[in-house]
Amino acid sequence: MDRAQAKGQRMDMGPATRKNNRTDCGPPRMALTLKDHDRHSYADYLGWPEDVRYELIDGVAYLMAPAPTVHHQDIAGENFRQIENALEGKPCRVFILPVDVRLPKADEADEDIDTVVQPDVLVVCDERKIGERGVRGAPDFVVEVLSPATAGHDQINKRRVYERRGLQEYWLVHPTDQVLTVYRLCGRRIRQARRPGARRRDADPGAARPHHPLGRARGPAAQARVLRVCEST
Fold it and tell me: What domain count does the chain have?
């Protein structure tokens, strides 16, 4: 039994929720480098070198971390595998990084879109959103594996933009603490999901081991949750 299970499966987010200069990935939060101070669009994005990865948030270009670590890829890959198995026979598709997700504000042309992100794992249940260039419009479900370099970006910048675009469910995997934080759309706000009676800083559900962030005991429940999100669209 791991430490969280010994505490009645209560996953305390710890000091990271109380200190602004730290994340629950361990090391102090590091801000991503900006490409410049100009405003950019998807048309600009398409012209940048393919060997340098950026994400656009409201026209601001953030230089993303180099290639993910093997441990990061192990976690993302395990999420992908379990979700793909859960969605077998369902009208939904699961993708793994790198896939461009364009998030228009309304019906603007692709070239004018100013927000483009690359989630670690994503599920799309509307086939009309999928094209050769990737995905246009909010996915139904996104998983991000946090690292010291990207934690603040994923927890703040991307969560806000996903909220505005109507993402249904957002998972943040914290590898160091072995915690999985779940956010769900409630009305127009993405809120952290909690078990009945759980305190605000409790995460729900938890991760049993770093290489299995959904946890074997959590697997069926996690898969059922994905199915419910996709079947509601």
Answer: 1
164-184 burial, b at 16+ Cβ within 10 Å, e below that, comes to ebebbbbbbbbbebbbbbbbb
Strand order in the sheet with 116-117: 33-34, 60-63, 54-57, 116-117, 101-102, 134-136, 130-131
Q: Which of 226, 83, 57, 64 is nearest to 151 (CA)?
A: 64
∠ at Cα 229 (211, 169), nearest 5°?
A: 60
pLDDT tens digits for the chain (233 residues)?
343 333 333 333 333 333 333 334 444 445 678 887 899 999 999 999 888 889 999 999 998 877 778 898 899 999 999 999 999 988 899 999 899 999 999 999 999 999 999 999 999 999 999 999 999 999 999 999 988 878 888 888 899 999 999 899 999 998 888 888 898 877 777 677 765 444 444 443 333 333 333 433 344 445 555 555 555 54
Place of tokens 């996709």: 230
Can you tell me the distance from the alpha carbon of 76 to that of 72, in angstroms, rounded to the nearest whole number?
6
Q: Which residue has the tokens 């299995």?
A: 212
CATH of the domain at 178: 3.90.1570.10
